[in-house]
Amino acid sequence: QQQVKQSPQSLIVQKGGISIINCAYENTAFDYFPWYQQFPGKGPALLIAIRPDVSEKKEGRFTISFNKSAKQFSLHIMDSQPGDSATYFCAASSDSARQLTFGSGTQLTVLP
Amino acid sequence: DTAVSQTPKYLVTQMGNDKSIKCEQNLGHDTMYWYKQDSKKFLKIMFSYNNKELIINETVPNRFSPKSPDKAHLNLHINSLELGDSAVYFCASSQDRRLAGRKETQYFGPGTRLLVL
């Protein structure tokens, strides 16, 4: 059973545009929602994370929006750059789970 | 300084062989993981060790056996390799959530690309 659903599977954006990736979760015990970025040939690396006590977190061009009632969260990349081209994974975890549950990934391509 | 390192980076082998992948972390973390990433990029957790104790053992064929000689190392041994084992295997580490407060980032190694022929 996939507990974190991610969409879209792939996304193509023009340079300077906004990239939006969405995730939905089922387990209401989840209390930590990170996004990981993976470049080709590399391991995933933490990009930004949010906890459900806030509805938005911004770090530079990257923003997480969180909707607890809808059990959804999304990653917004403002002013997308070709260097942002990578695979993005949302994830969720809780104390009892003791592990990260990853979404299926979104391959982002930013065209120059 | 490499935080999480894996060897080898590439592994090409014949069906039926036995192989091992090694992982080391120098972050002082308590918890280590093995993930499998398939050709569609889906990341699936296989095992997790906390202070050398197995805490997560997902539905993985028993041909896969993790071994943690100490907190800084988690190796993965695979017996009787099959074509379907071809994937990228990632090791990761994190501080124990119960001890880390809000610092529970997982740090991934560079991956081991396994190809079974």
Structure, described:
The complex is a heterodimer of chains A (112) and B (117). With 112 residues, chain A is mostly beta strands. In chain A, 0% of the residues lie in helices and 53% in strands. Chain A contains no helices and eleven strands. Chain A has strands at 4-7, 10-14, 19-25, 33-38, 45-50, 56-59, 62-67, 72-77, 86-92, 101-102, 106-111. In chain A, strands 2, 4, 5, 9, 10 and 11 form a six-stranded mixed β-sheet that branches. A five-stranded antiparallel β-sheet of chain A has the order 1-3-8-7-6, with no helix packed on it. In chain A, a hairpin with an 8-residue loop joins strand 9 and strand 10 (101-102). Chain A is globular. The model of chain A has no long low-confidence stretch (mean pLDDT 94). Chain B has 117 residues and is mostly beta strands. Helix content of chain B is 3%, strand content 54%. Chain B contains one helix and eleven strands. The model of chain B has no long low-confidence stretch (mean pLDDT 90). At the A-B interface, strand 5 of A face strand 5 and strand 10 of B.
Task: Briefly characterize the structure.
Chain A has 112 residues and is mainly beta. Chain A has no helices and 11 strands.
Helical percentage of chain B? under 10%
The biggest sheet of chain B, with number of strands, parallel, antiparallel or mixed sense and barrel status, is: 7 strands, mixed
Alpha plus pi helix count of chain A: 0
Oligomer: heterodimer
Biggest interface found: A-B, 22 and 24 residues
State the end-to-end distance of chain A.
38 Å
Low-confidence stretches of chain A: none
Shape of chain B: globular
Judged by helices, strands and strand pairing, the structural class of chain A is: mainly beta
Structural class designation of chain B: mainly beta
Say how many strands of chain A there are: 11
Helix count of chain B equals: 1
The total count of strands of chain B amounts to: 11
Instruction: Please give the alpha-carbon distance between the first and last residues of chain B.
Output: 34 Å
What's the SSE pattern of chain A? EEEEEEEEEEE
The dominant shape of chain A is globular
Estimate what percentage of residues of chain A fall within beta strands.
Answer: over 45%
Main sheet: strands, sense, barrel of chain A? 6 strands, mixed
Question: What is the element string of chain B, with H for helices and E for strands?
Answer: EEEEEEEEEHEE
Instruction: State Rg of chain B.
Output: 14 Å
